[in-house]
Structure formats: C-alpha cells, structure tokens
Amino acid sequence: MTSTIDLNCDMGESFGPWTLGRDEELLEHVTSANVACGFHAGDPGVMERLAHLAGSWGVALGAHPGLPDLQGFGRRAMAVAPGEAYAMVLYQTGALAAFARAAGTRLTHVKPHGALYNMAAKDPALAGAIARAVRDFDGALVLVGLSGSELLRAGEALGLRVGSEVFADRAYEADGSLTPRHLPGALVEDEEQAVGRVLRMVKEGVVRSRQGQDVALRADTVCIHGDQPGAVPFARRIRRELEAAGIQVRAL
Nearest-5° angle of CA 162, CA 166, CA 170? Predict the structure, then answer.
C-alpha cells in the first residue's frame, strides 16, 4: 500500500478571452499543478497568473508541454520527429520556468500533455527525446508519465526522478494504456466510481480495465483533468477519501 500520494491537476488551459476550468478553486485541493505552456492551450498571461497562484497556495508547479495544436487542444496525434519533440518540450518548459522565477517560485516537474503524453508512453525514441529535454533543462525536475510507460523508462535511464501517474477520471485498456477519448466510457464521470478506482489504485496497485481485467500499476501521483465539469468536487472528494484512508497527500 502506498502511504503517500500526490494529487495533480492539468490547468492553466484558458486562452485570451476564453476561460476553461476553475483553476483557483482546484488549487485548494491538489498538491501539484501542471500548467499549459501555450502550444495546446494557455498564454503568457495565464502562465504568469498560475505561477503566482500556485506559489501562494504552496502547490508544486509543473510544466505541461503539448503539441502545437490549439484547435485540437493537443489531443490529436502528430508525426513529430524526436528532435522536434525535444525542442518543443525545452521551449515550453523554459517559458513557464521564467514566470515561476518572476513569481518567486520554481518548477518541480514536467508532464507532457495529451497526444504527446500518449505517444511517448509507447514510442521509445520520442520518450527519450522528451526525457533529454527535461534533463538538459534541469536534471532535478521530476518527469511525470503514465505508469509502466516508455516515458518513465527513458527518464530513469537518464537518471531523472520519475513520477508514475494514474488517472482518476480516465478508463484503462488491458495493456495499461488509457482508453482513447472517442470510445464509450473513456471518461469516468461518476464520483463514486472515480473515488473507488483511485483508492484501489493507490492501496492495491491495480485498476480494472475496460475489458474487465485487473491491470497492475504504480501510483505516485493521481491526475484529475481540470477541463472536466466535475473537477472541483472530484478533487475535493478524492483528497478527503485518501486522507480518511490514512494516505498522506503531498507533492512529489
């Protein structure tokens, strides 16, 4: 059984006059914030605001770099070469780090977003490029990736600390990958179901796949997507239930 767990949320995904998510309310309940860096969502003003807000709440601040796809919210796969992925991650991480420094705080981790995250979970070359970008920027950063993924293996091979991530609001396939969003049941929207799954992942190290099989995984950090309507009550309830189960909720 895991005795401590990080509760993270993808946020900072507003852009210009368009607002997405309830970032300020979520920061009250999570221990880590993964902030969009402008490629799939977010803009300089949003990054600046989130750097200050995370610092004021004592929440760990992480870069959430994605593919250059504002229209598709970074969730559409793109044929990017490893060298391109390296540059994208380095560029976006550096941008958020500048705002962190100006806010008197610092980055603690990097977690790729969307399609980039899922592609790197299976592609060793892409995973290696992302891990190199994180190491070359700051070898003290934690690289966050899907439990059992190529991204975590690449980070460990380069000597990075890695955070094995599980998802409160996503369904799993039998191979441990996340169920593609276009399939029925890909999103877990029932609060009771989400809480039960999280407690089982953290306490037992398993999750029930869409195919009905138990899949082994390691849980260092639990993700809640800030763009889903129930993000705030999900985060509040999950944290309360974790702490009631004797599990300490703290940043990686």
Answer: 145
Q: Is 137 a residue whose pLDDT tops 80?
A: yes
* pTM exceeding the 0.70 threshold for the entire prediction: yes
Residue 199: alpha-carbon gap to chain centroid: 18
Q: What is the pLDDT of residues 226-235, one digit of tens each?
A: 777 778 888 9
In sequence order, which residues have a C-beta less than 8 Å from that of residue 226 and are 6 or more positions away?
Answer: 9, 10, 11, 13, 20, 21, 22, 23, 26
Q: In terms of C-beta density within 10 A (0-12 exposed, 13-18 middle, 19 or more buried), how is residue 102 classed?
A: exposed
| Token pair 């803009």: residue | 43
Residue 10, Cβ neighbours under 10 Å: how many?
26
CA angle centred on 180, ends 214 and 147, rounded to 5°: 50
For the chain, the residue count is 252
By CB atoms closer than 10 A (0-12, 13-18, 19+), residue 202 is buried
